[in-house]
Amino acid sequence: METELPLGLVRALWLIIGTVAALALLPASAVAADPGVAKAAAADGFTANFAFYPYHNCALVSVDYSNLPDRAAATGVALRIVRRGSGETLASRTLAASAGYNAEGQWALPGLGEGEFELVARVNGTSAAERRVPFERHVFPWEHNSLGKSAAIVPPFSALVSGDDTVSAVLRKHTLTRLGLWKQVNSLGTDLLAHPMRLELRRGSRTESVEGNSFEFVDRSGTRVVSESSFPGGTTRSEWDYDGVMKWTLDLAPDPHPIDSLTLVVPLDDHLMPLMHACTDGIRINYAGLVPAGSGQVWDSAKAKRRVMPGTFVPYIWVGGEERGLAVFGDNDKGWVTAKDVPCQVLRREGDILELRLNLIAGPTVITAGRRITIGFQATPTKPMPADWRLRTLGGQPIHGTSALHYAFLGSCLDWGALSRAMDVYPRNEDFGIWDEFRRVRQTGKLDTHELDDWLAHIGDPNDRERSRVAVGYGFHVMQTRPQNVLVYTNARGVRFDTPEGRTFLNEWDRELFPKRVWKDGTWFDLNPSESFRDYATWYYRRMLTTFADSIYWDDTFLQSVYRPIDTDAYRRPDGRIQPAAGLWDMRALIRRTAVLGAELGKPPTNMVHMTNAAIAPILSFAQSMYTWEDMKSDLDFQDRHTRDYIRAESIGRQHGDVPFAMLLTVTKDPAKLAWIKRTGTGVLLVHEIKTSGSEREWSVAFQKLVDFGYGQKDVRVFNYWDADNPVSVDGGDVATLCVAKSGAALAVVCDYGGGGEMTLHMNRKALGLSQGLAARNEETGEALPVDPDGSVHFQLRRHDYMIIVIGDLRSEESNIPKSAVRNDSRRIRLTAAAGVAQ
What we know:
Helix content: 10-25%
Shape: globular
Largest sheet: 9 strands, antiparallel
Radius of gyration: 29 Å
Strand order of the largest sheet: 15-16-17-18-29-25-24-21-22
Number of strands: 49
């Protein structure tokens, strides 16, 4: 966890972009359930662990009595649920004794209603005193609400369209096999599969593709399409959502004949799949970049880093290009048959085909009971980019010369009146008067300081009061600017457990099976957004969105191992340990439901997900913006932090239709080096069309130059360095470029990734519509650059520096090229000096 920052620094951070500390993602182990609780009890008798699930009217109980001197005499464990104070027994049962001196069981309970209760546990046949575990059940008005559950379609999605064997979603058309798998998927007019997906069964020396006996659509609407199939060994079911997610469920029937292997094969067109992104249970560990080169098996899931999830299953794998691609995902390997030396997932290249192979049954198996396997599929891009995406901005001052959406960001829960930085969805003490005052100030631009003082007066602790004054003061400052769009920080993995809601739903919200029951606050990273949490959150999101806010921001949408078998796909392995789920479907459901809530309220879709470094298509699909690069915080140049392949696979947002933003975090205290590092980050951002906070001066000044030229306007073309028709090339250096072109003029951003040096910029004049007589200048300094008769531009670039070059008929007074002010000032000299330090 981040330590408490000095008040002066906190104030400075809030005045820039809210509380950067609230955005920090730490390892999952930073906030864990207290392991000492159970051990202390066991040393003094026996341990009674209890998990209560109010939405499911059930409990899990685990009693360890192995430390009892007379444990061998135990005849069972008697359990009761009693109302505290009265002692009234509401439910009872007995767990059988076991040879391991541990009794466990799932317990169906009656609806308990409002009140405080206790689990009472006694080990029958022993002299041990009974154990009592207190818990609470409060009933809330938000429970089982229907917010965000309508059939409203969130723009820019459109209704699903299904034919005899096809399902079409926005930008994509899928043709299905008789197993409900994909015969082909066409994305942006291009087929992605080299051959149909197939289920490959091997018995002995014989391998065959499983063929379906029947296929039919059993449900068709604009928001949901369902097909069912049968085959000799079982059935399949394909459930479609209108963002193109298909949840495919394979049910295998009992079969006395041994199966050596069962593999789901996804044959992809290798030419379209240069990049990949694989996510496990954590962040800052997930690979993004090139698909490894070579023939045969080029990658397997055993190579993926993970936090704690056992085995080799990778919950999310995407392969593709800068836009088109295919994601395959699931919560865990439930229903699979794994083998020690066989990875769950493999990428194999043979000629022009890149196969993603899922080893559903990895070794000789006899299916003695039914097995269910659930896998998700989604082709990218999941939706088109917003029309004004290139001009949307975040924080600081809006960019001049554009009316595109600008996010004013309340970057911490404290900024909108909460008790904590990253664990709340309502203001302190549920005093919504502060939100009403936010609305009034936003409407009028006028602040009544007495209202703020009155609200602060109810905070007893002076330090806490001053901290809130700074934070809420920043919130009111934002409202006084009468912003176009207010983006509100929330945390998709943070929640308080010291509230009536948290104490009631502890076991449905914390990812651990038996977290500690008494908290002084909560968790920043260990929430799993289950159905009851989604009911809770959307209830207060609606209050935000109808009072003072326009958009919801979620921190921490990465995957986490969740150990709850009651309401997730976590399951008990043969060795007795719990195989966790990744929480992917629950996280997707939170983002999706909030997007639908916004549509129900008539709000334009503008929510933002902070996904460092877990760009997961089914989660990002229902967001509209994404925030990344909190990983690899250091004093390195940004070219040394993120490769171009990493950025194209993880950061550009094109696969998800999300406007990309990134953080420029550093750890240096040297002002000159800091300025230089921010400059390297600006160059990397510009050539990848990623934005950062408008409070980043270096970036905002450079971005303004692009906007002044016409970047983002309908009649101005943009070429990325990875485009096949890119009209720009550079000799003499290892660089990345962005080209912006309009009638009679072009702008090129050149960012060095090598050692710098003398370089030559070549531009295809015909493709860009440029005349014969050209001139060029460095748009930042106003310096004229040498141009050859063929239009080639000569310039010098420092290592990891960038240059904005404008080319056209600069000599004409009627030129279309804006003449920005020359900035040959002391700032430029300082940056030059810093560049020398960086080398």
